[in-house]
Amino acid sequence: MPPPVRDAFLSAGHGCHSDLEGDWLYGDLPDLRHDYSAEARGLGHFRFAFNDTMLIGGRKQPLQSVDKIRKAIDNGSRKFRSPAELIEAVMGQSLDGMTTELAGLGDTLDGIEDRIVCDAWHNELQALVDARRQLVVIHRADGDADQPVPPSRPFASQ
């Protein structure tokens, strides 16, 4: 392995990238951690380096895409003719997984936003009803008890 590839593979930092050095393609891909990982859910990193005949990969925790591809190889449902095909499959799984995760997060955020908006409106409506009641009490305490107080009506019909 050329020194720049080895140095990138063994570096302490994480930065998503792919680079070419001679006949080696190498990089660091984001991937989703498994739920059963000892660390919190989120993104992990898969480092790889390959040429026409050799593939070297590394990860610190179980990653969904890498494990899905490994299982497909183990059960015989996927065969790869080259290291490049294998990395392409891992990248595709990673992107599909993140797309699904982002869609789920978007749905979660939309639900939170909907509840906040609904609850805020509901609380505002209740605050207006409470303020009206307080004004009626103040009006009656002011000595105008003989004056009729208009009936309470829903705000939507006003």
What does the model show?
This protein starts with a helix and ends in a 17-residue tail after the last helix. Helices cover 49% and strands 16% of the residues. The chain is elongated. The chain has 158 residues and is of the alpha+beta class. The protein is built from three helices and four strands. Strands 1-2-3-4 form a four-stranded antiparallel β-sheet, sandwiched between helices.
For the biggest sheet, the summary is:
4 strands, antiparallel
Give the helix proportion (percent range). Answer: 40-55%
Order of helices and strands: HEEEEHH
How many helices?
3
**Strand numbers in spatial order across the main sheet:** 1-2-3-4
User: In whole angstroms, how far apart are the ends?
Assistant: 77 Å
Portion in strands: 15-25%
Backbone CA Rg: 30 Å
* Structure classification: alpha+beta
Stretches where pLDDT is under 50 for at least 5 consecutive residues are 141-146, 151-158
User: How many strand units?
Assistant: 4
Bulk shape: elongated
Mean pLDDT: 76
List keywords for this structure.
elongated, 3 helices, four-stranded antiparallel sheet, single chain, disordered C terminus, 158 residues, alpha+beta
SSE blueprint:
Layout: H1 3-10, E1 17-21, E2 24-32, E3 43-50, E4 55-58, H2 64-74, H3 83-141
Antiparallel strand pairs: 1-2, 2-3, 3-4
Helix pairs in contact: 2-3
